[in-house]
């Protein structure tokens, strides 16, 4: 019996396999490969887009909500759903992600080269872009919700805009 196996037995593990399944219980269910794909994807998202898991999930929820409310609103308007309209959505998302990814990449590059002022500017731009993308998609979702509820497309956004502007008048 080797030293590691003896050590495991002191913790009531009867084999290396039992210990490994305790460390990664997904292995008992054949789910480890799928989780590793998700884990590596999170890493790519963080390194490419500069978003942690929560930020990326929030952005994903916004995108998916816009997509589904857009489809629902099109049905309410009795429009046929076509691949060209879905392609428009995909193009928007791709452009948003490119802007977010490029600003983050430039931020990291400038910081790496001790160009702190430029790094700060691109970090600021990155945060501003992510925030603005969230706002713009929320407006689109609100337009879709208004349509779904049988109102003019701009009904909800106009109310919010008027209320917001009233704080500054």
Automatic annotation (TrEMBL):
Topology of this chain in the membrane: Multi-pass membrane protein
Record keyword Ubl conjugation present: no
Predominant subcellular localization, coarse grouping: membrane
Membrane-spanning parts: 55-74, 86-107
Alphabetic keyword roster: Membrane, Transmembrane, Transmembrane helix
InterPro entries: Phage_holin_4_1
Subcellular location: Membrane
GO cellular component, one term: membrane
Keyword Hydrolase: no
Protein name (database record): Phage holin family protein
